[in-house]
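Let us walk through a complete example step by step. Step one is to write down the protein sequence. Step two is to encode the small molecule, flavin-adenine dinucleotide, as a SMILES string so that its atoms and bonds are unambiguous. Step three, shown after the inputs, is the structure prediction itself.
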Amino acid sequence: MSKNAMTSKLTLQLQQAATDPEDIFDLVCVGFGPASLAIAVALHDRGVRAKVLFIERQRSFSWHAGMLLPNARMQISFMKDLATLRDPRSKFTFVNYLKTKDRLVAFTNLSTFLPLRDEFNDYLTWCASQFEQDVRYCQETISILPINSCQEPVKSWQVVSKDVNTNRQGFVTARHVVVAIG
Ligand SMILES: Cc1cc2nc3c(=O)[nH]c(=O)nc-3n(C[C@H](O)[C@H](O)[C@H](O)COP(=O)(O)OP(=O)(O)OC[C@H]3O[C@@H](n4cnc5c(N)ncnc54)[C@H](O)[C@@H]3O)c2cc1C
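Step three: the predicted structure of the complex.
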């Protein structure tokens, strides 16, 4: 079977499959790294009440885990965190993270704008932990297909993912999709 025929067959199967209303989302973000996390934070800060899902293949949030070398520092100022430049009063600023962890004075006394990568990873993980209910970990997205592909513009998408432990496939329906896989 040609690739096009296989894609058409899969599209048809997905259309025919009963879609659980629970699995219909306004927005699905594929990948839950800093880019998607920034979207989660911005939607939260603006009070947007959309139904959003983040799909991540790792077991839990981690920012380039293999590259957290001892004493390696960020290459940009902590002011370029997930919130400050958009809204310095957001609870998701790096400064609020430091305050929450009782590290504000110690960090200030370092006289640097460049946190350790390890600490910035902890900041990102702290932010991510506040969106646990919206994230499906251990899920790797393998295809994104338009529903009713004859319809222009496309109104919704089937996002197909597999469980990284069991290889079991499942899908959700999204009105909008952001691909933020790094
Ligand atoms: C060593 C290193 C140091 C860096 N230092 C800085 C710095 O100091 N300052 C700076 O601004 N930038 C730095 N960067 C750049 C870095 O790209 C960004 O900081 C940031 O990680 C980009 O975020 P992202 O969400 O776009 O991508 P990523 O961080 O790569 O996140 C993508 C996520 O998508 C997931 N994913 C991928 N494919 C799938 C799939 N098919 N299904 C489900 N999930 C999937 C991945 O597991 C990952 O969690 C650095 C990068 C590296 C590698």
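Step four is interpretation. The first strand starts at residue 24 and ends at 30.
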